[in-house]
């Protein structure tokens, strides 16, 4: 018995957008769907019990962070990540790969090989007990063909992720859907390295799948998605999608980073190689135009931290574009946060009030803005689903983009 079931209800006539139903052990997900990110089993500023009011159907937690704190054993003892955080619906976990690489050498940087000053890049095939590695606490991620050695951004302790270990951790976290371990590269990396990382990702995908299939109980409850890599190069993306599609995954993710100019072409070539009958997840995508373009290219699931991150800094989504509530012009603006989008739980607050909360450093402002943004992006994707079913998706997309980016 498969851990999930995916049924396509309707296909758009002017694009490859589709509306479907993804059935998991903890409930159904009507697709396309936006997934709020609960990095450490917590969506910043939002109680799990309030998520259904915002339209959320599923949440995504982070393997890297939960492995480091509190540890997958505690989450398993709690009954899995959903039970641990008081969420009864479907859950997803990522592989931990993106965070290992992006947090390896300070925040926001992707690391493959390590160099110091004029020193040439070091060999990757190091021992995890290498004294020079252990001394660089919080500063390092070193990749070899077997996995990645990294230091914790919390305390500098040394750790090792392999495909097998990532799967083992995610089995313990107990999400309905989880991802194979992959290498996520920066879009600026040269093609030679993108190809090397892609091929390594393919080998890791096979090992992840093999490890998952050995756990009979986990296979009944949890679905494993493979990840397509290849950077910004269409030929590599096509090759990667073809290779990952040949493996017996339950679904697929499109991973890595993109430039705006490359995203659509890369999606088109990758999606064309993926099985029509299996779900597709566009990892880490949350900007409204990008989400709508992803739907247009046949993607089903999206996740991103940007909605709550922007909310915490005082920026909200509206149908007419972004509003920066810290600006002084909103001090006396007694209109709703967005008069065209009434988000349950935040619809009664004015821009003046929430602007006051931010300037007064009241944490309630961050909560209201985060909830509004999540409700907005979820409603945008839900509206896209309805438009697909009614065969007016391209008009829906064009109308939104015209107003939002005017």
CATH hierarchy, class of the largest domain: Alpha Beta
Number of helices: 15
CATH topology of the largest domain: TIM Barrel
CATH level-four homologous superfamily name of the largest domain:
Queuine tRNA-ribosyltransferase-like
Low-pLDDT stretches are 104-138
Strand content: 15-25%
Structural class: alpha/beta
Supply the CATH architecture of the largest domain.
Alpha-Beta Barrel
Strand order of the largest sheet: 4-5-6-10-11-12-13-14
Question: What is the makeup of the main sheet?
Answer: 8 strands, parallel, barrel
Number of domains: 2
Query: What's the alpha carbon Rg, rounded to whole Å?
Result: 21 Å
Number of strands: 16
Task: State the separation between the terminal residues, measured CA to CA.
Answer: 49 Å
List keywords for this structure.
17% strand, eight-stranded parallel beta barrel, 406 residues, 39% helix, 2 domains, TIM Barrel, 15 helices, three-stranded antiparallel sheet, alpha/beta
Task: Reconstruct the topology from this structure.
Layout: E1 5-11, E2 18-24, E3 27-31, E4 33-38, E5 59-61, H1 63-68, H2 72-77, H3 81-85, E6 91-93, H4 97-103, H5 131-134, E7 141-144, E8 147-151, E9 158-161, H6 163-173, E10 177-179, H7 191-214, H8 216-221, E11 223-228, H9 234-245, E12 251-254, H10 260-271, E13 280-282, H11 288-296, E14 301-304, H12 306-312, E15 315-316, E16 323-324, H13 351-359, H14 363-389, H15 393-404
Parallel strand pairs: 4-5, 4-14, 5-6, 6-10, 10-11, 11-12, 12-13, 13-14
Antiparallel strand pairs: 1-2, 2-3, 7-8, 8-9, 15-16
């Amino acid at each position: 018995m498969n851990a999930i079931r995916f049924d396509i209800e309707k296909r758009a006539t002017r694009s490859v957008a589709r509306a479907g139903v993804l059935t998991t052990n903890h409930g159904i997900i009507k697709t396309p769907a936006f997934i709020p990110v609960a990095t450490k089993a917590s969506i910043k500023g939002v109680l799990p019990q309030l998520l259904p009011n915002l339209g959320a159907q599923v949440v995504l937690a982070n393997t890297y962070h939960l492995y480091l704190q509190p540890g997958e054993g505690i989450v398993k003892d709690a009954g899995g990540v959903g039970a641990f955080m008081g969420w009864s619906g479907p859950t997803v976990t990522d592989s931990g790969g993106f965070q290992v690489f992006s947090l390896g050498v300070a925040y926001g940087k992707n690391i493959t090989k390590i160099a110091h000053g004029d020193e040439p890049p070091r060999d990757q095939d190091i021992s995890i007990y290498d004294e020079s590695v252990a001394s660089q606490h919080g500063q390092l991620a070193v990749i070899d063909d077997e996995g990645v050695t990294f230091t914790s951004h919390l305390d500098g302790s040394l750790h090792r992720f392999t495909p097998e270990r990532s799967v083992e951790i995610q089995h313990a976290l107990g999400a309905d859907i989880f991802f194979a371990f992959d290498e996520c590269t920066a879009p600026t990396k040269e093609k030679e390295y993108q190809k090397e990382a892609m091929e390594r990702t393919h080998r890791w995908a096979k090992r992840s799948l093999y490890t998952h299939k050995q756990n009979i109980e986990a296979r009944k409850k949890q679905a494993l998605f493979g990840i397509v890599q290849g950077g910004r190069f269409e030929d590599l993306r096509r090759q990667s999608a073809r290779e990952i599609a040949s493996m017996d995954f339950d679904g697929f993710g499109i991973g890595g980073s993109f430039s705006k100019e490359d995203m659509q072409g890369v999606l088109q070539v990758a999606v064309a190689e993926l099985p029509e009958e299996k779900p597709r997840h566009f990892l880490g995508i949350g900007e409204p135009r990008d989400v709508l373009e992803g739907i247009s290219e046949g993607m089903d699931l999206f996740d991103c931290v940007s909605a709550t991150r922007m909310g915490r800094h005082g920026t909200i989504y509206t149908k007419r574009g972004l509003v920066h509530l810290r600006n002084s012009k909103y001090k006396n603006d007694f209109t709703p946060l967005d008069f065209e989008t009434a988000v349950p739980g935040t619809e009664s607050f004015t821009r003046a009030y929430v602007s006051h909360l931010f300037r007064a450093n009241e944490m309630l402002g961050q909560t209201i803005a985060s909830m509004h943004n999540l409700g907005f992006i979820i409603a945008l994707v839900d509206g896209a689903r309805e438009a697909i079913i009614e065969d007016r998706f391209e008009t829906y997309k064009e109308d939104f983009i015209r107003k939002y980016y005017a």
